Amino acid sequence: MTKILLVEDEESILEAVKLNLELDEFQVETCNTGTQVLSYLPSIQQFDLVILDVMLPGINGIELCQRIREKSEVPILFLSAKGNTTDKILGLKSGANDYLAKPFDLEELLLRVQILTHQKKQPSLKNEFTIGSKKVDFDTFEVKCIHTDIIVNLSKKEIDLLQFFIKNQGRVVSRNEILDHVWGTDQFPTSRTIDNFILNFRKLFEEQPKQPRYFLSIRGVGYKFVLN
Q: Domain total for the chain?
């Protein structure tokens, strides 16, 4: 499920945007101050888009955008009552991908969101991806052994989890982050569910499942996917 962080201090705008995004089947988390966003910075990569008001209590949107850019290339869409050319240029120079002046049309906002989240997803939606001696085909949900042509079929959830790891390659991700991003907030699996998926991945992709090279356990935190 596509995940969006919405940062807006005007309650009416926050609720209206959140409702319309959720109706379009986006998963939305909200903040109404710039200071609240700081707690998200270490895991900002979990989001597919940040919608960011410029004028915020605590820390303004321009500074937040710059701090996010130090951590991630996640797409950022500015919303602002400051709509002149100078303000837009400042916002884009700070690292934003797009800038929408208030008052705005909700249909236009949703269109821009669709465009930005689609762009974010493109790198991780390659048709094929190779892990060790196995090649994953994301169109057919098949894993093929390069040397023997043996085919293993994966479930949709296994494909979703693999794509999440590929998109976050080299980064430690917590079990809760995996659950939120892959399963969403409307399902209630346990962290043990993830552990079982990882065990299956190791059996499939690792030459020595008990000494994994690709799907690493990070004690007390979660997992990290690496290619080495």
A: 2
Predicted confidence (pLDDT) per residue in 23-76, tens digit? 998 999 999 999 999 999 988 988 999 999 999 998 999 999 999 998 888 999
Q: What is the residue range of 13's domain?
A: 3-122
Between the CA atoms of 87, 92, 95 and 99, what dihedral angle is there, to the nearest 10 degrees?
90
Considering the domain architecture, whether residues 115 and 28 belong to the same structural domain is answered as yes
98 near 77, Cβ under 8 Å? yes
Rounded to whole angstroms, the Cα distance separating 155 from 219 reads: 27
> For residues 42 and 45, what is the distance between their CA atoms, to the nearest angstrom?
8
Phi, psi of 154 (to 5 degrees): -105, 160
CA distance linking residue 36 with residue 132, whole number of Å: 41
50 lies in the same domain as 132: no
pTM value?
A: 0.55
SS3 131: strand
User: If you average pLDDT over residues 13-18, what whole number do you get?
Assistant: 96
Q: What are the structure tokens assigned to 59, written together?
A: 């820390």
Per-residue burial over 188-223, b = 16 or more CB atoms within 10 Å of its CB, e = otherwise: eeeeebbeebbebbbebbbeeeeebebbeeeeeebb
